[in-house]
């Protein structure tokens, strides 16, 4: 890194998407959560969560898998490896900013 701070990933930086990524990152790699469970954990409306998941999916950060449990449609969401890596980069960039605010050099 030369002469400055890392860019904060704008896909993750939006507050709602950051909350989604933090929640999914807490799952063990390879695990997924059903849409209603994620919606309830985050306290978001289905429409709002859907909009943010589309942005994350377009960036390759989440995998959305639609299937059926019996006759009931079920949507599962998981953080991809790319999403985990992007989140690690994002948290490192935030740490750099915080350390610089405390008088430490990036």
Strand content: 15-25%
The 3D shape can be described as: elongated
Radius of gyration (CA) equals 16 Å
The CATH homologous superfamily is called Winged helix-like DNA-binding domain superfamily/Winged helix DNA-binding domain
Q: What about the largest sheet?
A: 3 strands, antiparallel
Alpha plus pi helix count: 5
Strand order of the largest sheet: 1-3-2
Number of domains: 1
CATH top level assignment: Mainly Alpha
CATH level-3 fold name:
Arc Repressor Mutant, subunit A
* Amount of helix: 40-55%
> Regions with pLDDT < 50 over 5+ consecutive residues?
none
DSSP strand tally: 3
Short synopsis of the structure:
The protein has about 110 residues and is an alpha+beta fold.
Topology:
Blueprint lengths: L9 H4 L1 H11 L7 E2 H8 L3 H13 L3 E8 L2 E8 L1 H21 L5
Structural account:
- The protein is of the alpha+beta class and 106 residues long.
- It has a single domain (10-100), classed as Winged helix-like DNA-binding domain superfamily/Winged helix DNA-binding domain (Arc Repressor Mutant, subunit A, Orthogonal Bundle).
- The chain is built from five helices and three strands.
- It has a three-stranded antiparallel sheet.
- The N and C termini lie close together (9 Å).
- The relative contact order is 0.21.
- The mean pLDDT is 92.
């Amino acid at each position: 890194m030369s002469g400055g701070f890392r860019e904060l990933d704008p896909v993750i930086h939006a507050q709602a998407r950051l909350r989604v990524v933090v929640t999914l990152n807490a799952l063990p790699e390879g695990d997924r959560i059903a849409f209603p469970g994620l919606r309830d954990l985050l306290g978001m409306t289905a429409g709002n969560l859907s909009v943010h998941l589309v942005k994350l999916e377009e960036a390759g950060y989440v995998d959305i898998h639609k299937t059926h449990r019996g006759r009931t449609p079920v949507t599962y969401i998981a953080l991809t490896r790319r999403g985990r890596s992007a989140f690690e980069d994002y948290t490192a960039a935030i740490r750099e900013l915080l350390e610089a605010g405390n008088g430490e050099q990036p």
